Structures are given as C-alpha cells and as structure tokens.
C-alpha cells in the first residue's frame, strides 16, 4: 500500500501549476517519503512531520555554491487527512513564491561554477601536455603532477580560481623545470591584471 506521503503527492501532482510534475518515492531513516519533481529540476520533498498525523513539505535545491539562507528554503506542515488539494495549495502559496525566485539564481551560480571549473580543467590539460610524463588529478582543484619513474623528481602545478595558479617544484630535473616554467609563464601573461587595475583580479577576458 502506498505511503501517505506518496498518496498526497500523487493527488497534488496534477493540480500543481505548470505541467509535468511527477512523484518519486524515497526513504529517510525508515520514513517513507515522496517528492514532487518537475522537468526543470525543481523538487518539493514531502515527509512525515514530527507531529503525529502531519506531513511536511519543503523545497530542495541541487548542490550549489550559491549562498542559501533559511528564508530561501521555506517549508510548511499540514494534517495528512486534508488531502492532496490542500497540499497543492500549501505548496503553491507558501513555497513556490520563494522557490521560483531563488531556484533560477541557484542554476545561474552553478552554471558559472561549471564554466570556471572548465577553464581550470582546460588549463590543467594545457600544462600537462607540456610536461613529459605529467598527469592530472581532478579533485578538488585540477592538479598537474610530474613523476619520473625510478627517481624522486616531481613537479606539481595546481590550478585555482580567479586566475591564480600555484606551481611547486620538488627535486625537479632540467627537462621538467623548463617545460613547466614555460607553460606557467604563458599562464601568467594571459591572466595578469589589466594596466591600472588595482583590484588584483585577472581580466575577465583573459581567464
């Protein structure tokens, strides 16, 4: 038999503003929960509330670097026996006004973060292609490492955000030093602040 959260979500889904809302179930600490999900990624979680006979509805965001406050994540509770129409009304009037305003900002912040990550990854690939025997480690920031088998030679180039990059040398031979310094010098020239710029930030078009 479907859980009460699933029943309520299933009743509310066709009443939700905008078409395409579907119901998915999941479990949290043995509690059977449901989620109203839209094709654009919006997600309303429906779970049992602490008060017996009540359910809780709350908005959900994807992992993000956007600074979310408590006010950006509204929730509401209602008696489960009020039915799916009451759930839809509560979501529409109490949750969606805030959610529909903040969700696009979260997506925009995530897209900006994705672009910066792609730039750093491309720079790491550029560096690694110039250093014989180098490899790239992708997390948390792209790291280019040069290891010559059978020796203790090593060079590390870490590509950070905002046009900042770190190159570390440990027992590095002439070949690796020359290759990495040449590549790193090119990076510095491309990410140097514009003339007269006192902010210390790299030019946006140079990143």
Can you describe what's shown?
The structure is a single chain. With 207 residues, the chain is α+β, with helices and mostly antiparallel strands. The chain contains three helices and nine strands; from the N terminus they run H-E-E-E-E-E-H-E-E-E-E-H. The protein has helices spanning 4-12, 84-130, 174-191, and strands spanning 22-28, 31-37, 43-48, 54-60, 75-79, 134-137, 143-147, 154-159, 165-170. A five-stranded antiparallel sheet has the order 1-2-3-4-5, covered by helices on one side. A hairpin with a 2-residue loop joins strand 1 (22-28) and strand 2. Helix 1 (4-12) packs across helix 2 and helix 2 packs across helix 3. Mean pLDDT is 78; it is low at 148-153 and 197-207.
């Amino acid at each position: 038999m479907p859980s009460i959260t699933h029943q309520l979500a299933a009743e509310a889904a066709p009443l939700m503003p905008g078409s395409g809302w579907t119901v998915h179930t999941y479990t949290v600490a043995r509690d059977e929960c449901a989620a109203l999900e839209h094709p654009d990624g919006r997600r309303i979680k429906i779970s049992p509330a602490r008060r017996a006979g009540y359910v809780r509805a709350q908005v959900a965001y994807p992992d993000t670097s956007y600074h979310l406050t408590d006010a950006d994540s509204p929730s509401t509770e209602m008696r489960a026996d009020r039915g799916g129409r009451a759930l839809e009304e509560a979501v529409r009037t109490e949750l969606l006004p805030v959610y529909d305003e903040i969700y696009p900002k979260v997506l925009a912040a995530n897209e900006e973060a994705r672009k910066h990550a792609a730039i750093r990854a491309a720079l790491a690939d550029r560096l690694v292609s110039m250093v014989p025997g180098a490899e790239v480690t992708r997390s948390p920031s792209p790291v280019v490492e040069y290891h010559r088998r059978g020796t203790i030679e090593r060079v590390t180039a870490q590509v950070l955000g905002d046009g900042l990059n770190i190159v570390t040398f440990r027992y590095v031979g002439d070949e690796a030093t020359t290759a990495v310094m040449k590549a790193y010098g090119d990076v510095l020239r491309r990410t140097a602040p514009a003339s007269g710029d006192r902010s210390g930030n790299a030019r946006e078009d140079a990143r």
